[in-house]
Specification:
single chain; alpha+beta; 4 helices; about 40% strand; four-stranded antiparallel sheet; about 250 residues; elongated; 8 strands
Length: about 250
């Protein structure tokens, strides 16, 4: 009695990175496009693309604070309040709106020292306040920061600068487009290596970008110069995307 021939798949579904061999329930099976010799979909290929776009930032976010030491909590707190108000007033005189100045930190702590045989001793108290200020006029940002530092005197602590965008929608769209083309190029290469061709897109998902949209190195260099001149330059926005394509047999 004759039996029907058995067809064993000895390949085990092995292919390039991101390639999935078609099987029961695979997204690549069904009535997909026709490949060589009339074959259907062979599986899927999943890749992640990255891209970036650059533009001149139009917003600077400054973290600036004061730190005051005194013999009592009340004295330290009062002095920190006066110094913080002087810093705030300096920014306002430069045209910074009240909505762009926000208190993001406020604390009072004991200043402790260790002495042999006596343990820890309180030598005074430290009050600190931190402001986050958004500067929209980059041309006068250096002067505004300088005025604020002068107003607060030795109590001022300039914590850092961030050059960014008040609205990054347009530049982020260009970054996503670059990420898409990167993913497509990679998928096409894998399809060619697998002697296959790309079919329809099965899924698209945003991925968290590896890098934040802030030129950190440039900011640190700008903040280090004596005049505190800030060169805005261009800031880069990163995007990443994960795409799954149908993969059809036959190049």
């Amino acid at each position: 009695m004759e039996t029907e021939p058995r067809h064993d798949d000895s390949s085990g579904g092995v292919g390039p990175a991101g390639y999935q061999h078609a099987g029961i329930g695979s997204p690549g099976t069904g009535s997909g496009g026709t490949g060589a010799a009339g074959t259907g979909a062979a599986g899927t290929v999943s890749v992640t693309g990255t891209g970036s776009a650059e533009a001149a930032p139009d917003l600077m976010v400054v973290s600036i604070g004061v730190e005051c030491r005194a013999d009592s909590v009340e004295a330290a707190y009062s002095r920190a309040g006066m110094s913080s108000e002087a810093v705030t007033s300096a920014f306002r005189q430069r045209g910074v709106e009240g909505t762009d100045i926000r208190t993001t930190g406020l604390n009072v702590r004991a200043d402790l020292v260790w002495k042999e045989g006596e343990g820890q001793r309180v030598t005074g108290y430290v009050a600190a306040s931190t402001l986050t200020v958004r500067l929209r006029a980059l041309g006068s940002a250096s002067a505004a920061i300088s005025d604020a530092v002068d107003a607060g005197g030795n109590d001022v602590r300039l914590n850092g600068l961030e050059l960014t965008f008040s609205d990054d929608a347009a530049v982020r769209a260009r970054a996503r487009e670059a990420a898409w083309h990167d993913a497509l190029t990679t998928a096409q290469q894998y399809a060619q290596l697998a002697s296959a061709r790309l079919g329809r897109v099965l899924s698209v998902a945003d991925q968290a970008p590896v890098q934040s949209p802030v030129p950190v190195v440039r900011m640190q260099r700008a903040a280090a110069v004596e005049s505190l001149a800030v060169e805005a330059g261009d800031a880069a926005v990163m995007a990443a995307i994960s795409v799954v394509w149908e993969l059809h047999a036959g190049a």
